Amino acid sequence: MTNYTKLPAVLLLDDGTVFHGKAAGKIGTTTGEICFNTGMTGYQEVFTDPSYFGQIMVATNSHIGNYGVNHDEVESEKIQIAGLVCKNYNIAYSRKQADGSIQDYFQQQNIVSISDIDTRELVRHIRDKGAMNAIISSEILDIDELKTKLAEVPSMDGLELSSQVSTTETYTFGDESAPLRVAVLDLGVKKNILRNFSDRGVYAKVYPAKTTYAEMEADLAPNGYFISNGPGDPAAMPYAIETVKEILKADKPMFGICLGHQLLALANDIPTQKMFNGHRGLNHPVKNIIKNHCEVTSQNHGFGVVPEAVRASDKVEITHINLNDQSIEGIRVKDKKAFSVQYHPESSPGPHDSRYLFDDFVEMIK
C-alpha cells in the first residue's frame, strides 16, 4: 500500500486558488466540478451516489474514514465521485463490522484524493465564489501544468452524464409476486430508493436511461413510473424530457426525485438553472405547504427549477419550499397523478422525515 502520509498533493481551483495537502487514495490526477457536502456521517453512501458522478467532493466533517467501509452500505456498484478533499483522512477505523479501510477502498477503485486541507477555508471560498472546476494531483505539482490540464475540463453546465451512470441492462428489484409494479427510469438511481419501493410491496423493474415510455409500457405494463435522481444538466437530456412528456400524455401515475423533479418541470415548460452552489447535506429544512409541516431533508443537487417560472405556470402547483433560500423543493401536475421533489426522501444518508412520499406514491397507484 502507498504510504500516502509522506507524499505531497495539490488542489487547484478554476479561479487560480491553490491548496497544498497530502496524497490520499490512488497516486495520480483527477478533475471535476468541486462541491461540498455538510453531512456529519454517511460518507460511503455519498461516495457511491451516482448523482455525484464527475464531481470532486469536499467533506466538511473533520474526520473521513474513521468507521471504515462496509460493502452493504453502497448506493451503486462503485465509487462515483471524481475525487475527495478532506481534513483528516483516517486509515485506521473503529467499527468491527467494517470490511476494510478507506485507503484500501480508494486504491482498489482508483480514486485520487487529497487530505490535510483547511476545509473550512476552502468551503468558505467556494460558498463565496460559487461552484467551479478543480484538479487534484499527487503526481504533478507544477501549477502551470495543472492549469493547462484544468482548462480542458468541460463545465457541468450543459453536460449530459446520466447515460454514463445508468444501467445498460434492465434488472428487477423486489418480490415478483408483489401486487404493484413500478417502472424505474434509471438516470443514476440509488439502491435505497429501490429498497423503499420493495419495503412497500412494490416490484420494480429498472430500465436504461434512454428507454422510451412505449418500451417500458409494452414490457411491464406498470402501475406507475418513477424518474430517478442522477448527475449532470437536466436541460441536456431531451430523451428523458420526451419520456416524461409521454408518461404525462398517457395519464400514468409518476413520481420523480431530484433530477426526476427537474425533468418533470422541463416536461411542463418550466426551465431549470445551474445553482450558485447547490444543496448538499443532511439537514436542509423544507416546508410541505400542502400539509403545513416542516421536514429535515437530505439533499444533493447543483441544478434547480426556476422559481419564477414555477409560480407563473398554469400546469403545476408548488408543494414544497426550501426554508433556507425559498427554492422550489416539490411540485405536482394539475389534473394528473404526477408529483416530484428536489430532495432525497430515501435518505441514505440522512433523516427519515420524508419517507411518507413513497407511501403517497403507493397510495396513488393502488
Low-pLDDT stretches: none
Please indicate the count of domains.
2
CATH level-3 fold name of the largest domain: Rossmann fold
Could you give the count of β-strands?
19
End-to-end C-alpha gap: 54 Å
CATH architecture of the largest domain: 3-Layer(aba) Sandwich
- The CATH homologous superfamily of the largest domain is named Class I glutamine amidotransferase (GATase) domain
SSE class: alpha/beta
Give helix and strand order, one letter per element, not per position: EEEHEEEEHEHEHHEEHEHEHEHEEHEEEH
Strand order of the largest sheet: 10-12-11-13-14-19-18-17-15-16
Beta content comes to 25-35%
Tell me the radius of gyration. 20 Å
Active site: 258, 344, 346
Keywords: Amino-acid biosynthesis, Arginine biosynthesis, ATP-binding, Glutamine amidotransferase, Ligase, Nucleotide-binding, Pyrimidine biosynthesis
Region (CPSase): 1-180
Subunit structure: Composed of two chains; the small (or glutamine) chain promotes the hydrolysis of glutamine to ammonia, which is used by the large (or ammonia) chain to synthesize carbamoyl phosphate. Tetramer of heterodimers (alpha,beta)4.
